[in-house]
């Protein structure tokens, strides 16, 4: 462990001088925010010193560098995490106490950078953590959005979006690198000139903006490696302030140029899947790709000169989903137009350098752009795409059976559109899915034609999570217990969690597992009281579904279950219900009506149930607003049931399933995404699986024999009743009924098979919650889940990427 402070005394001395020099006040007169900022500045400066050492080590060893291109990095708060990774958290906490401060209080001042939507962005952040832990020279490349994803507020049960001004107090971790800014051109037209018998192309008449990088340190556990995350901000190239307009009183016009440039990095598009096609989004994608590549190539050039054939040996560029798909054509553009390589050589280098991860099979999320928009905004990049496409089509093997259909499926340009997924596959030497089932589905269905052509490109990399953030940091009570039992080696090597199996028969240890869970439930209950004004009972079962709202994730199925239990309890007060708090949290894309209506339904059901004394002994429903990394860290440790109930075949992986498992929750789920690996690792007897499997879903859909109205008519007392309650006055008092959900469900013929899985889901829930009364066995299963979860550390995932894709 490379601790940044030798002793408490050394820390105090440095810290006091940091506080006074930053605030200009004696320590006693400083506010908590002064103290927080000074603490971050101190830790960040230490981190940068280690970063300099890391950089020297990487350079001297000629280590391969890995660049992870992602339009989202949901990094969460860093202070606590970095103190832990540097091994000084306890030391700093004690020193602050002695100074009359409190670490936890100060940490509350850190903003939670909402630079991501959900799983995809958080995965990128976990990967940064693990790359640094593994000593990989791995760097994030992304966007610095001025405003994060919106802040979610609930009014009359409905989601309202307000601005997330995460930079309002500045962001003490980042360093602006004006000296590394890159000029990015949009629009214009391509001009070719002959030079030494060869056509050379450049673009004239472009509208330029300046991409300015901000660097954020990434501290690896152990403190020996500090990498960096570079995020780009869009600004005007030079201050083109229109003084004439200003003097004439037209202030808007005076600033118009600046505003237009800054718009590119103003907001993160609030879709985790679906709804693309906006020009600004395309600009974002090109900006962080082109600026990022420019800095990657600068570094390469400074180390290896202009021998571009060495690029794949020293550089790996990983594209996280299709958003950075322009890495391929942009790298080609630079190699050909600026470095004057021949096409074939440039192509060989490009495809050996780039790799691609697919994160969803949802067709609406596989990005496509109209050629007309694309070619106007990025004429030279488009020409290159066109040439890649022309060569791909020309070289296509026309002797194979059904080649026409196969070409149609794999083509880059088709029907007037640029298909980014196909571009990504064609420009990459590796294509992976994010859980076993997901990769199987890519190979068998979504990308089956590519798989038939180039099976060697395909591989699976089941997702992982940072066990340090989501167990050690988020759940200190449980983490202490674990360390007491098996030592602290698990922080470094999560597979050591398996040693906990030895305690599964130890009654007093299981007792303490239960106590740790209870402490976390009390902590969450206090948060819920503060945030929602709702009292929840830490003795009840905490049943948790937290994730983005999406039809396929089936929060609707969950709330149908709650409605059904409520109805049955009212009808029969002897109906046994294990006292449960149903906890939901998550945002819906602002334009996604069905998802937003589901949120409103949950809150409306909550409003009725929470105010009904007839059932309050046994049920409460709680929607925690504004789900984000910081409150997720309070929720996961308190959960006992992990709801992972997507329609089988739809969830690529899921990662909250892993975080919840690691924290000792039992999965109530379908055989989907990484739930399958969870069951394989922990044993089906330690989870609760229900519902159709992916092949059964396929079969049912193919049979054409699924009818929503039949399901409704066949179960009038329960399912039928729940459906009726969408449009009667049972839950409409708060802000109206739910006709649109009713229509979506019945007219859409239960597309996500909510009605189909309803009966088996509720039965599974009843069985699972009834087994809660055997506390000892429940705690044993909880512990077993933690003990089996080490494989889900993103350290493992990253080692697989390193060995099988990046060769770093
Ligand atoms: C999401 C999937 C999740 C998966 C994460 C991370 C997108 C496009 N995909 O199932 O829906 O866990 O990616 O791989 O956000």
Topology of this protein?
Blueprint: H1 8-23, H2 32-61, E1 65-69, H3 79-85, H4 89-98, H5 103-107, H6 119-133, E2 137-143, E3 151-155, E4 158-162, E5 175-176, E6 182-186, E7 189-195, E8 198-204, E9 207-219, E10 226-236, H7 243-247, H8 251-263, H9 279-304, H10 311-314, E11 315-320, H11 327-338, H12 343-353, E12 354-357, E13 368-370, H13 371-377, H14 379-394, H15 403-410, E14 413-414, E15 417-419, H16 420-426, E16 430-433, H17 436-446, H18 448-453, E17 458-460, H19 467-473, H20 476-486, H21 489-492, H22 507-532, E18 541-546, H23 555-571, E19 580-585, H24 593-610, E20 619-624, H25 629-638, E21 641-644, H26 656-662, E22 666-669, H27 675-682, E23 688-689, H28 694-703, H29 708-714, H30 716-724, H31 739-747, H32 754-770, H33 775-787, H34 794-806
Parallel strand pairs: 1-2, 1-11, 2-10, 11-12, 12-16, 16-17, 18-19, 18-21, 19-20, 21-22, 22-23
Antiparallel strand pairs: 3-4, 5-9, 6-9, 7-8, 9-10, 13-15, 14-15
Helix pairs in contact: 1-2, 1-4, 6-34, 11-12, 11-14, 13-14, 22-25, 22-33, 23-24, 23-30, 23-32, 29-30
The structure holds N-acetyl-beta-D-glucopyranosylamine.
């Amino acid at each position: 462990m490379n601790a940044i402070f030798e002793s408490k005394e050394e820390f105090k001395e440095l810290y006091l001088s940091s506080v006074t020099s930053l605030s200009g006040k004696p320590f006693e007169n400083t506010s908590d925010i002064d103290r927080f900022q000074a603490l971050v500045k101190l830790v960040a400066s230490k981190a940068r010193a280690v970063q300099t050492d890391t950089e020297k080590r990487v350079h001297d060893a000629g280590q391969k560098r890995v660049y992870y291109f992602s339009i989202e990095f949901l990094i969460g708060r860093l202070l606590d995490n970095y103190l832990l990774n540097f091994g000084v958290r306890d030391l700093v906490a004690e020193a602050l106490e002695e100074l009359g401060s409190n670490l936890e209080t100060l940490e509350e001042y850190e903003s939670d950078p909402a630079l991501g939507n959900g799983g995809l962005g958080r995965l990128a952040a976990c990967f940064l953590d693990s790359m640094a832990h593994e000593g990989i020279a791995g760097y994030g490349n992304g966007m610095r959005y001025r405003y994060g994803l919106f802040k979610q507020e609930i009014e009359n049960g409905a989601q309202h979006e307000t601005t997330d001004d995460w930079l309002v107090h500045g962001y003490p971790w980042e360093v602006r690198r004006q000296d590394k800014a890159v000029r990015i051109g949009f629009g214009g037209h391509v001009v070719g000139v002959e030079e030494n018998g060869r056509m050379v192309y450049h673009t004239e008449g472009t509208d330029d903006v300046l991409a300015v990088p901000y660097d954020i340190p990434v501290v690896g556990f152990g403190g020996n490696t500090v990498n960096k995350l570079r995020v780009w901000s869009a600004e005007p190239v030079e201050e083109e302030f229109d003084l004439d307009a200003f003097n004439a009183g037209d202030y808007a016009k005076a600033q118009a140029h600046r505003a237009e440039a800054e718009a590119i990095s103003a907001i993160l598009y609030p879709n985790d899947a679906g709804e693309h096609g906006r020009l600004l989004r395309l600009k974002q994608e090109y900006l962080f790709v082109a600026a990022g590549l420019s800095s990657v190539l600068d570094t390469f050039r400074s180390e290896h000169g202009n021998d571009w054939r060495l690029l794949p040996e020293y550089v790996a560029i990983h594209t996280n989903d299709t958003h950075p798909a322009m890495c391929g054509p942009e790298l080609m553009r630079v190699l050909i137009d600026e470095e004057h390589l021949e096409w074939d050589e440039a192509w060989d280098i490009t495809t050996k350098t780039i790799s691609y991860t697919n994160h969803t099979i949802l067709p609406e999320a596989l990005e496509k752009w109209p050629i007309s928009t694309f070619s106007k905004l990025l004429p030279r990049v488009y020409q290159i795409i066109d040439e890649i496409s022309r060569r791909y089509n020309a070289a296509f093997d026309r002797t194979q059976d059904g080649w026409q259909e196969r070409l149609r499926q794999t083509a880059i340009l088709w029907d007037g559109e640029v298909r980014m997924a196909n571009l990504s596959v064609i420009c990459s030497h590796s294509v992976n899915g994010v859980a076993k089932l997901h990769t199987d589905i890519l190979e068998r269905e979504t990308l089956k034609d590519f798989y038939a052509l180039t099976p060697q490109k395909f591989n699976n990399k089941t997702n992982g999570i940072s066990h340090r953030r989501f167990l050690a940091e988020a759940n200190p009570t449980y983490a202490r217990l674990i360390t007491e039992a098996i030592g602290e080696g698990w922080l470094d090597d999560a597979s050591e969690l398996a040693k906990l199996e030895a305690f599964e028969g130890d009654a007093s240890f299981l007792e303490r597992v239960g106590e740790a869970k209870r402490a976390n439930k009390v902590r969450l209950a206090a948060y819920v009281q503060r945030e929602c004004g709702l009292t929840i009972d830490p003795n009840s079962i905490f049943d948790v579904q937290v994730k983005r709202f999406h039809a396929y994730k089936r929060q609707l199925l969950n709330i149908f279950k709650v409605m059904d239990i409520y109805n049955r309890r009212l009808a029969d007060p002897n109906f046994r219900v294990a006292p449960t708090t149903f906890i939901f949290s998550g945002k819906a894309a602002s334009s996604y009506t069905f998802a937003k209506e589901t949120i409103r339904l949950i809150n409306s059901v909550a409003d009725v149930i929470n105010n009904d004394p007839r059932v309050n002994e046994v049920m409460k429903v709680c929607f925690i607003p504004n789900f984000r990394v910081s409150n997720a860290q309070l929720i996961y440790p308190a959960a006992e049931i992990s709801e992972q109930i997507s329609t089988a075949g739809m969830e690529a992986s899921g990662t909250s399933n892993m975080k919840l498992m690691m924290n000792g929750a039992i999965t109530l789920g379908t055989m989907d995404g990484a739930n399958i690996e969870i069951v394989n690792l922990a044993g089906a007897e330690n989870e609760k699986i229900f519902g159709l499997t992916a092949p059964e879903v396929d079969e049912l859909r193919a049979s054409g024999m699924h009818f929503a109205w039949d399901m409704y008519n066949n179960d009038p007392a329960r399912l039928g009743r729940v459906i009726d309650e969408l449009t009667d006055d049972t839950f409409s008092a708060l802000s109206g009924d739910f006709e649109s959900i009713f229509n979506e469900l019945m007219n859409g013929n239960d597309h996500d098979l909510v009605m189909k899985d309803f009966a088996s889901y509720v039965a599974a829930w009843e069985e699972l919650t009834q087994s809660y009364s055997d506390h000892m066995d429940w705690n044993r299963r909880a512990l077993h889940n933690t003990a089996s979860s080490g494989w889900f550390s993103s350290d493992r995932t990253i080692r697989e990427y390193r060995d099988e894709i990046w060769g770093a």
